[in-house]
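Hi all, long-time lurker, first post. I run a small reading group and we've been trying to get comfortable going from sequence to structure in the token notation. Rather than ask abstract questions, I figured I'd post a concrete chain and ask someone more experienced to write out its structure so we can walk through it together at our next meeting. Sequence below, copied exactly:
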Amino acid sequence: MLWAERGLTDESEILKFLQHGTLVGLLPVPHPILIRKYQANSGTNHWFRTYLWGIIYLRNVDPPIWYDTDVKLFEIQKT
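-- Answer (accepted) --
Happy to help. Here is the structure in token form:
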């Protein structure tokens, strides 16, 4: 603790130190922010397509527009 290293024991001295002190040099320098553009791949395309069709299907369950139809969700295996 900084207050202990400086020999501060009184609460008012500690508060004064905290109000007028600085943390410059005590904390490590933050890493630079890296900005990356999204790059689509087959895994994310499959996930997004499945998610989108799942949302479309679930949002249309009530009222049941798929009732009395042969619409079913399934996955196509590519070879």
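A couple of things your group might point at:
Residues 42-59 form the longest helix (18 residues).
The radius of gyration is 30 Å.
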